[in-house]
Specification:
This protein is mainly α. It has seven helices and two strands; from the N terminus they run ααααβαααβ. The relative contact order is 0.17.
Length: about 150
């Protein structure tokens, strides 16, 4: 790769919009998968019923790994296949390997997705890095050697 990056780096507003769209999509997947359990919990909730709140808390604790797995697979598979999640597709941006300027390999896309979830667990601090790096790379981009560009 040459010293001067020839592709247009995606803007922060586009990246933020893609993030929101992707989180909505992943949440929909989660609700569809656990629809019956969620409806059962919702039917048990009465006005300020602490036992229902405790049941909801238990449900979240029991399924948080499933949620992170769905999120990780969503990002890894779609970035590996096309460089774009649905959110990125909607705002016309994509992920590429910084060295090859092609869509990332499955291993690189999976690493990026895992690091992305890790950043979310720690108050999104890893995402803030994108505001201070020349190529707008967040933690998961930097350590997977990827960049997000206009598609």
């Amino acid at each position: 790769m040459s010293n001067s990056f020839s592709l247009q780096i995606a803007s922060m507003p586009k990246r933020m919009m893609a993030f929101v769209i992707d989180d909505i999509v992943v949440s929909i997947f989660f609700v569809v998968i656990f629809y019956d359990q969620i409806m059962m919990l919702m039917s048990e909730i009465s006005v300020v019923d602490q036992s229902a709140a405790e049941a909801m808390n238990v449900f979240v604790q029991q399924n948080i790994l499933v949620f992170f797995a769905i999120k990780t697979l969503y990002h890894a598979v779609l970035v590996w296949q096309s460089g774009m999640t649905l959110g990125k597709y909607a705002v016309k941006i994509k992920v590429i390997d910084y060295q090859t300027e092609h869509i990332p390999s499955f291993v690189k896309a999976l690493l990026r997705a895992l690091l992305r979830v890790f950043s979310e667990l720690f108050f999104y601090v890893g995402f803030m890095l994108a505001f201070f790096t020349p190529l707008r790379q967040a933690f998961h981009d930097k350590f997977s050697n990827c960049v997000v560009i206009d598609a």
